[in-house]
Task: structure prediction
Amino acid sequence: MRGLAGARVLATGGAGFLGRHVADLLIAHGASVYVPRSSVYDLRKEGDVARLYADAQPDVVIHMAVNGGGIGYNRAHPATIARDNMLMDTFVLKGACDAGVRKVVGIGSVCAYPKHTPVPFREEALWDGYPEETNAPYGLAKRMLLVQTQACREEFGLAGIHLLLANMYGPYDTFDPVRSHVVAALVRRFHEAKASGAPSVTLWGTGTVTREFLFVQDAAEAVVRATERYDGPEPVNVGTGCEHTIAELAGAVSRIVGYHGQVRWDPSMPDGQPRRVLDVSRARALFGFSAATAIEDGLAQTYAWYVAEGGA
Result:
């Protein structure tokens, strides 16, 4: 499809971290956005999803609703994460087919890649092995979202696309210590350590593993661009193409926060996947996306938002 002006867009997860930014951008593009609330529609229940489609009457669905978190949350709730995501994905796609929507955009994750994928991760490597163990239930559920989307295209003619997003960070992230991902967790840890005058901060793992960090507003831009411009069946990586060690990230966050204590590492705790960085050439070629925000700028904006929100 070309252009979103006048389109009715159902944004599942539209009140969440990525979803808030996507919804704002869709509105700026002239779309009418329907954001379902979990208190009204439980996307794990087929009847609720059918009612949602009847209420929203969407032309386009951007499916961002998810149950996930950082390593600690994933280790504590593997069955719940796998079940909830597969149920939501199944019923949202079935509802889209039943309602005859024009397009579905599925939001996948770098966590779906095999543990030992050669870097940079190319989309063709997605099925070359098992995901890293601490996030495998989540990653495999995301792979199944891709499979179901492609199957619905083949059987029902659904125009579905799938985006594989790098680790996101930015305003409206989850800073709760139980569910937060690494950037938000570090922002909170260093902020609290500075406030309390703690002489040191102990972080999980060795600090040597690498990640790619995508500012959430860049991610939202990619989602909207792909919605407008991409119609193919193959998954597309969305990221920066830049790799940083967790130790480098911790150093950057501590500088921005202004924490001057010692950073200690606890190698008895899991590191997660050894390396993560995406080949982002397909996104540039197919819908003209390149991330615009340097990591230091994005981290500064994230911390400023966190402080403005009361450091909560």
In short: The domain at 8-172+213-241+276-292 is CATH 3.40.50.720 (Rossmann fold). The mean pLDDT is 96. The CA atoms of residues 60 and 157 lie 14 Å apart.
